[in-house]
């Protein structure tokens, strides 16, 4: 049991200390308060303290955490959960508030008032603006044999099954029917699931308010009102019909997209490129990011309607989960969808080209499913039993990795569902992490090969830890080029939100170094003499830092995580959280230029080498400035300097091609930068070729013999070929630095 300093006594209130002076305030409970306080269970007091936290209420000695900092000498405010504190401590805190506040709060909770009964009662309470917790909702007291999670029957259909009568559609008769349903439940039990007509269900998203909905429709919701509904057709293939009836909620709306048939709707949904999640009722949806005609990037959610197939899946899911938990040793969480987590893991094996003892996913389906084979290869359309059977064909090491990723997926889904239900619980830091995750290139950049044995998959913590955490840590790394063509981190720095240094370590690369890139990193061979710190030790240090919901910050952070071989999803990437007025799509500003735009100062002067610690601090300061000032309007960031216009970028060059061989391809005597950036696969690299001026660089590009095309950001490039000294022919890209 944790040790807590003695709180101000209720019997001797003069021991309480005022927050504003040293006088001993009078905390004597008023007449009648003694009965209320003695009658309150600890759980009741916990609820009241949590209410003060949510509403940011403060007594004479400040808020809950202020009070903890004063009176809990051992732990202070580090353990802020009221449920983990003694009852006397909670009472002492509540007595720092005006007496009428405590009295009203306790009376409200302890009062033996009537039980309110209704069908979908929360809608009525919301309309009446009444906050009341002693309720019975007739939609929730029965179990149903044929309804998917989150769906409830219409009152009329429930009345037909339970009472054997049709309920008139008026307010008084529906109230009487709700009361009769409760009496029937009390008298007859109805402990076994009851069957409700499947075409008579409703759910709390009120989709029934729109006409003629079926499995041919897809739900599009959380659409900003600034987006015309006809523009939503840009998301889908073909020319689907958009319902002109929409449901508006604040600055967002929802509508439906109608296809010719359910097969076409399913195909359009599967073709969407977006993060798979669940809505509040466990139904599958995708978070889709698309670009409007005016260039604005917009995020919407696209989901399927509840169909018979989904209901059948819901009925059979428990039996499948029991089987799956035995095979993969997965602990079952009944509140979350295992199938979506497993489907996402299978997709990762597809993206990474992984194969088990029975081949890759399609090869496994060919041998496992004699009827359909690999013709139905979308993991989301396969049952959990098939997904688990495939994942069970991998080695024990990979199965442990799959289980870690499954747990992470369910934790992140639980976090999303919690924030969806309680939007006020999402901190400003979490909003920036969500903004990063919604960035169009996030999935591509942060999809790591973390199944390799030298990688570490960090836990994200429970939903409560993530919600309560205010910890943010910024990092930066310096890398060197090794003789095997890969990059290795040789210095890493981490700072907290107070710019206090958490880590500043040199790392032994563990293999021969080809280029220290001293002119950029500022690190030489002498700096690494005698260094014994390994990457494994650094990973252990980060495991301690990244616990209980800490958010990691960086500029193009995926490069640092890839170098450190750390897989962690709670991140804020400073390249993703600002809107830019003058940057083409897909182009990210340098840290130096972003600092100039946001902090009105540079991290380093032109020509100055990088400093790992200064870069980490600058990244943290950028995020703190974003949290404080918003920067919701587009900012202007210079991304191509005059000196850069005199350069060409050479990329996707096979590592076997030396920089000297590149110079033979270009006219004149350009300077080929030996500071190359090797890709994550280690097979290709990129570098810069510098000419005397921009005109010479332009002419060299025009004279190149190659196929002209554009890169992902719309910049002109040429696909060129080069014959090596050994006679082998290789191809790679050379592009301009600007969009002119």
Explained architecture:
This protein is an alpha+beta fold. Helices cover 34% and strands 18% of the residues. Strands 5, 6, 7, 8, 9, 10 and 11 form a 7-stranded antiparallel sheet that branches. β22 (677-678) and β23 form a beta hairpin.
Number of strands: 26
Can you identify the CATH class of the largest domain?
Alpha Beta
Rg of Cα set: 31 Å
Q: What helical percentage do the residues reach?
A: 25-40%
How much of the sequence is in beta strands? 15-25%
Q: Could you say which overall geometry the principal axes of the C-alpha atoms support?
A: globular
SS element count, helices: 24
Write a concise keyword list for the protein shown above.
740 residues; alpha+beta; Alpha-Beta Plaits; 6 domains; seven-stranded antiparallel β-sheet; 24 helices; 26 strands; globular
